[in-house]
Amino acid sequence: MAKKRTRANGDGTIFYNESKKLYTARIKIGRNPETGTAVMKEFSSRDRNTAKEKMRLYLEENPEYNPRADQTALDIYIRKFLYVLKKPIVTSKTLQRYESIYNTHITETETSKNICPFLYQSMKTIQSTQIREWYGELNESDSTLKLIHIIINGAFKLAFEDRVITYNPAQVIKMKKEEVDEEDVTAVLTSKEQKKLIEALDMENPIHRLLYFVMATGLRLGEALPLRWNDFKTIKGQKHVQIKRSLSRVKLEDGTYEDVEKDTKTTASKRVIPLPPKLTDAMESWEHARKDSLIFPNPRNKEESYIFNKTPARHLSKLCEECGVTSVTVRGLRHTYATRHFEAGTPIKTVQKLLGHRKFETTMNIYTHVMPDIKIRDVKNIDKFL
C-alpha cells in the first residue's frame, strides 16, 4: 500500500510504496498518442531526498518536462528541434554532428567551449542583434558557425510554427559563404595512378576488393559495406547493383558504438547503377556462401561481420605510399570515379545520378575542382569558337 502522495515543490509527486519499501518521485512527461493516457517517469530510492534529487536532476537536463521552467526558453526549443523534428528524419551521423555542436558550443557541459548567453531566455525577447553579437564573439570556423546557425534558426522556426513567437530573429542573419580552399579539395588519382594502384591490389583480400569496387562504381563507403550478393541483378544483359541501404556507426546510450544498416538518406541515394564489365568479371571469382551473405565481410572475424569503416582508409593509405601515387582517401576514390567520367565526356547530370547526389551543385563542385588537365582541355576547346 502506498502512502498519501505529496507535491515535490510543484515538480511532480513523491510517495512511499509500502510493498517495495521505496520512495518514488513521479513526473508526467507526456501522453500516449494511442490511448491518451498520461506517460509518467519514476525515480525510486530508499531515501526520500535521494528520489527527489534524481527527479530534480532529470528535470534540469530535460527542462521541457519541468512545469516550473519557462517553456518558451530557447534551450527547450533547441531540444525539440534536435529530438522531435530532426532525429526521425536525419541520419545518426548527422544527429551526432548536431549534438556535438550543441554540447561544445551552445550549452554548458564538461566539453563546452562556449555557452549561448541567451540559451535560457524566453524566445519572445531575443533579438537579432543578440544573435549577431554572439556569433561575432565566437572564434570558430565558417563551417562550425553555419552548423550553430542551423540549430539556432531551426529552433526559432519551430517556435514560430508553434505560434510561441510572431517573428524569427535568426532568419534575417546571413551566414558567410565558405570559400573553397584548393588545398582542401579532395585529392583524386590520375588515370595512370589509378592503373598503378589497381595493379597493386590483392583480390584475395576483401578490403582490397572493396577499394576496387568503390573505384569502379563510385559508391560511398557506407553504401558498399552492407552490400550483399542479392543486391545485384541483370538488366538487359548487364549486371547492376541496387543501392538501398547504408551502414552507419551509431553511438549508444552507454557510450559504445554499433554498426547499423539504415535506408539511404535521400531519394537520390536510392539508385540502380550498371557495373563495368571488368568489375563483373572480377566478381565472378569472389567466393560467397549464400545469396544474402556480405560481399565484403570482415576477414578478421570467423562469423560474418562488417569491415570496420576506418580499416579501408588505412589499407588505402599504405597502398598509395607503396605505389608512389597521390595519397587519396576512400572518398577520393569516389571522386576519382567521377573524374574518369568527366574525362570521358559523360554528361554531368548522368554522373549526378550515378553518384546519388541530391543536388546538381554537389556534382558540379567535384567537376570544377578535379584534374587540372580537364580544365586545360576545356579551355582549349574554346579555340574552336574564336
From TrEMBL:
It holds the Pfam family Phage_integrase. CDD domains: INT_ICEBs1_C_like. Keywords: DNA recombination, DNA-binding. This is Site-specific integrase. It comes from the Bacteria. Residues 184-381 form the Tyr recombinase domain. GO terms for molecular function: DNA binding. InterPro entries: DNA_brk_join_enz, Integrase-like_cat_sf, Integrase_catalytic, Integrase_recombinase_N, Tyrosine_recombinase_XerCD. One of its GO terms (biological process) is DNA integration. PROSITE patterns: TYR_RECOMBINASE. It comes from Proteiniclasticum aestuarii. Belongs to the 'phage' integrase family.
